[in-house]
């Protein structure tokens, strides 16, 4: 009876071992897996750089001709010629011509009268000289000598009047040929050749298709000097003081750039030359005027542009994108990406912000990496997933 009992206990022991082995295998297959570390916060970063940064003042401006002239008639008559529209003309070039026949006739009459009265004056002087000789010989009355002297003075006055009439007639003849007072570009003509113009404020009378008369008081044609060209703009009185300090009271010219309002492209570079002599009390601004050589004629009278005035250039300044600077409880700060892509909040002192670039006075060194987008989700020590800004997308055609 002992052997079957030992045999039973052996099966029990084997069952316990098998059960323990099954339990161990089950536990091994269901061992908890460690959770992966949380992903980093996605952020955009940029590198701190050292660069030369020009400090500037920007304003809205308008281009206008450096010299603009409206050609008006100074005598009345039929308009014979007007310079071609859009033509470039030199100073002194013929711009318009008025029929001078009537004025030439008046000039001829005045010249004839001058010659006649000059001859009478010469005769009176000869007689006066003869009378002086006779008076010295006591051959004529002294009264006769005095009368002849008066005749000479009278004829001298008549000749002076004639000379004035000749000069006035010559002026009217000269007014019939209108020449350009400046070098520039001819605009669209305001009246056609063949019409009758009058000197009253440059008014011109022309015949319409219906035969009625139309009066234009805006002149014959305009001439604008576009090389060089002027750009006028206004700045707040605070910026005006900065400009005055930098330029030594506007005794030194400041570099000015004209930028396209549509594309931001540079249309020309010139110099600030003129500052108005007062502050507009209604707006608190001062009007300024810059001169641009404009050799390519990218600037045109009446065109609106953005003007940038360079005050000074900061050499080797520490710069970051302005988007990297945020406001904290104690002032400006940036998030700097360190080892292990962990960020640290770094207080900084911003010297100035120019366009989209912040100039850092203290707190950063060139070569460090700062966060430019995604700061709202960051805390000191946060791990970040760095993504560099991609290239700008081209606009669809």
What's the short version?
Helix content is 27%, strand content 37%. The protein has 397 residues and is of the alpha+beta class.
Would you mind describing this structure in some detail?
- With 397 residues, the protein is an alpha+beta fold.
- It has four domains: 84 residues, conserved putative lor/sdh protein from methanococcus maripaludis s2 fold (Beta Barrel), CATH 2.40.420; 100 residues, Efflux pump adaptor protein, beta barrel domain (Elongation Factor Tu (Ef-tu), domain 3); 75 residues, Beta Barrel (OB fold (Dihydrolipoamide Acetyltransferase, E2P)), CATH 2.40.50.100; 76 residues, Helix Hairpins, CATH 1.10.287.
- 27% of the residues lie in helices and 37% in strands.
- A hairpin with a 2-residue loop joins strand 18 and strand 19.
- Helix 2 runs antiparallel to helix 3.
- The radius of gyration is 47 Å and the shape is rod-shaped.
- 22% of the residues are buried.
- The C terminus is likely disordered.
